[in-house]
């Protein structure tokens, strides 16, 4: 299977890192990006072949799967560049990871409709991503399987019945790693203000996150029960959670995630309306 990545930035690198070494014999990854430094890094680290955007024609024409990993704002121009290069007789699969961009708009820009739209996340870099996926009616069962194989190389996949749900996936798992890093940063700051060293605070915060996440994953009990077990009445955790509730922390997180979903939809509306 020949996979051409259009865009070799953060998210493409995370996917390529997870994929490299997992591909079967004969499979290969080709990356197209105007940034020569990014291409050099990907060649050195993962042994992929590369081309600058001006030089992409052969790689795109030969690809079985074309992964579009450019910014949503660049997608329309990139699709226009790709349009004459896609060999429709060969029926390649197009996989888009862009937030917001709807399959119908992308199909119109490409003049081609076999599209899987998905939303991965950056823990893919260490094979611990998770991806929400949808396919248009033009995607064959075999192509769906190929897309699933590619994304499952970096973590589990969740197929959605309705493409509109992908904005919710974006809000939870696509953007979610940033919320987790934000919470860890807050724990690091608290540790410092409470007199621990940076190193101690980081070690304690990271191990607590990893341990709690694993405990929740491995437990058959609801997360709320695990929380209650830490929270002795009148104890320290109770003091912390009461203060956080009073500050509206949970409500603020829910509101923030909804803002991400709304931004995904708005990006689709704004960029999709552009012809
Ligand atoms: N970063 C994240 O956590 C996630 C990002 N995404 C989506 O992935 C896409 C890429 O995001 P990032 O990797 O974070 O951005 P990025 O800015 O790191 O990567 C975009 C890459 O596209 C390249 N590029 C620009 N024009 C190009 C062209 N004409 N042809 C080929 N390459 C071109 C840029 O040089 C850059 O390397 C976005 O659409 C984003 O919504 C999806 C899930 C998670
Ligand atoms: O922030 C963004 O727009 C992208 C999509 C999900 C994660 N990063």
TrEMBL record:
Cited SUPFAM superfamilies: 6-phosphogluconate dehydrogenase C-terminal domain-like (SSF48179), NAD(P)-binding Rossmann-fold domains (SSF51735)
Residue ranges occupied by any Pyrroline-5-carboxylate reductase dimerisation domain in the UniProt entry: 163-266
UniProt-listed Enzyme Commission number(s): 1.5.1.2
Keyword Ligase recorded: no
InterPro entries: 6-PGluconate_DH-like_C_sf, NAD(P)-bd_dom_sf, P5C_Rdtase_cat_N, P5CR-like_CS, P5CR_dimer, Pyrroline-COOH_reductase
Regions crossing the membrane: none
Pfam families: F420_oxidored (PF03807), P5CR_dimer (PF14748)
Alphabetical keyword list: Amino-acid biosynthesis, Cytoplasm, NADP, Oxidoreductase, Proline biosynthesis
Domain of life where this protein originates: Bacteria
EC category name: oxidoreductase
Role description: Catalyzes the reduction of 1-pyrroline-5-carboxylate (PCA) to L-proline.
A molecular function GO annotation: pyrroline-5-carboxylate reductase activity
Record pathway: Amino-acid biosynthesis; L-proline biosynthesis; L-proline from L-glutamate 5-semialdehyde: step 1/1
Protein's UniProt name: Pyrroline-5-carboxylate reductase
Gene: proC
Known catalytic reactions: L-proline + NAD(+) = (S)-1-pyrroline-5-carboxylate + NADH + 2 H(+); L-proline + NADP(+) = (S)-1-pyrroline-5-carboxylate + NADPH + 2 H(+)
Location in or out of the cell: Cytoplasm
Domain Pyrroline-5-carboxylate reductase catalytic N-terminal: 2-100
Family listed: Belongs to the pyrroline-5-carboxylate reductase family.
